[in-house]
Specification:
- The chain folds into four domains: 56 residues, Immunoglobulin-like, CATH 2.60.40.10; 101 residues, Immunoglobulin-like, CATH 2.60.40.10; 96 residues, Immunoglobulin-like, CATH 2.60.40.10; 116 residues, Immunoglobulin-like (Sandwich), CATH 2.60.40.10.
- The protein is rod-shaped and about 135 Å long.
- Helices cover 3% and strands 54% of the residues.
- It is mainly beta.
């Protein structure tokens, strides 16, 4: 005779119970469940004596894993949560990976920050729940939850995307003053999502063609853009206000600083300017050379400002409430240095009236959202 009982239970296994049966000393369990796992004892006895047989039943089911949500878009600075949903058993080990690499040093729900994460920014709320606080660009990618036991292994994956983030300049070049001859490099780096496009200007215009000027840029692994302007054998006429501009659909960031090269005054050629009547017009004199004692604006031989609507600040002439009759014409800016050195350039200003016909002629020059090409001129006004 054989009597079966289970470790931890006082009574023998009921051979007539649901799913359990004993026949000829054999214990049968139908529709095995995870809860049936454990140690079982068979006490076999006859007239000669008795003997106890110990058996261990291990129950497992194939593992399957899903990470939820399977795809999410999170703005930089916000938090993200990933849940590992597991079917099957047992679950001996749960690991988290990012882009195929194990995420090391994860802080648990009751742990402090570990693994080089001083803010505990990436941590486990539970073994199957990953929390990322203050998401950065480095956090985007594919996350995997890997579950294994002695018999099986399975994984699920989810993608973390970044929402739009306006460009920000991480590195900006500074104002420099130098002698002519050596080389100089101006550098800007920007971050943002999507990766911003970087461009350069000199005194408000794209850099003029020059064999001594080279513009280069590259994008880092994390999508930051690094751009630089290298100028070899710098000359006085290379001086001016340089500007780097990072732009994407999420916004724009820019920075300006002067490069001063010792030498006589030099004024770069200016394209014709188109102004709109009633608006404010800014005209900047693109001065190079250093040091510059003064910049003087004139119109028709008369030094400006000569009316209340005009003012000169540095090398910029501002005209408020532009008038067709009095403000259209040719302007001249003269840059002077010591020892009677001077340089002069003129620029033509055309004033468009506010009539629909005039504005139509303006829009015909350029596609909506684009800038006027330099050979046509530029528009500079504000409300």
């Amino acid at each position: 005779m054989c009597v079966w009982w289970r470790q931890g239970q006082e009574n023998a296994v009921d051979a007539g119970a649901e799913r359990f049966s004993v026949r000829d000393g054999t214990l049968s369990i139908a529709s095995v469940r995870e809860s049936d796992a454990g140690t079982y004892f068979c006490n076999a006895s006859n007239s000669e004596g008795s003997e106890v047989l110990e058996l261990t039943l291990q129950v497992w089911a194939p593992l399957s894993v899903h990470v939820l949500p399977p795809r999410q878009t999170v703005d930089v600075g916000k938090s993200a949560d990933l849940a590992c949903q597991v079917a099957g058993f047992p679950r001996h080990q749960v690991s988290w990976l990012k882009d195929g690499r194990l995420i090391r040093g994860l802080a648990g729900p009751d742990d402090g920050a570990v693994g080089g994460d001083p803010g505990g920014r990436v941590r486990l709320l539970a073994a199957d729940r990953l929390h990322i606080a203050a998401v950065t660009k480095e956090d985007r990618g594919m996350y995997q939850c890997l579950v294994r036991n002695d018999h099986d292994m399975a994984q699920g994956a989810a993608e973390l995307r970044l929402g739009d983030a306006a460009p920000t300049l991480q590195y900006k070049f500074i104002e420099q003053t130098m002698q002519p001859g050596p080389s100089v490099s101006l550098k800007c780096s920007a971050t943002g999502n999507p990766t911003p496009h970087m461009s350069w200007k000199l005194d408000g215009f794209p850099l003029p063609p020059n064999d001594r000027v080279m513009i280069g840029q590259y994008v880092t692994l994390y999508g930051d853009v690094v751009s630089h302007v290298n100028i070899s054998n710098v000359k006085a006429e290379d001086g001016g206000e340089y500007e780097c501009e990072a732009e994407s659909r999420a916004g724009l960031a820019k920075h300006q600083a002067r490069l001063n090269i010792y030498g006589p005054p030099f004024v770069r050629a200016m394209p014709d300017i188109i102004a709109v009547a009633g608006k404010v017009l800014h005209i900047k004199c693109p001065v190079a050379g250093y040091p510059i004692e003064s910049v003087v604006w004139e119109k028709d031989g008369v030094v400006l400002p000569n009316i209340m609507r005009q003012r000169v600040s540095g090398n910029t002439l501002t005209i408020e409430n532009v008038q067709h009759a009095s403000d259209q014409g040719t302007y001249a800016c003269t840059a002077r240095a010591k020892h009677a050195h001077a340089a002069k350039r003129t620029v033509a200003v055309k004033v468009l009236g506010e009539s629909p016909a005039s504005l139509t002629s303006l829009t015909s020059l350029t596609r909506q959202g684009s800038r006027l090409p330099l050979f046509i001129g530029r528009i500079s006004w504000e409300e």
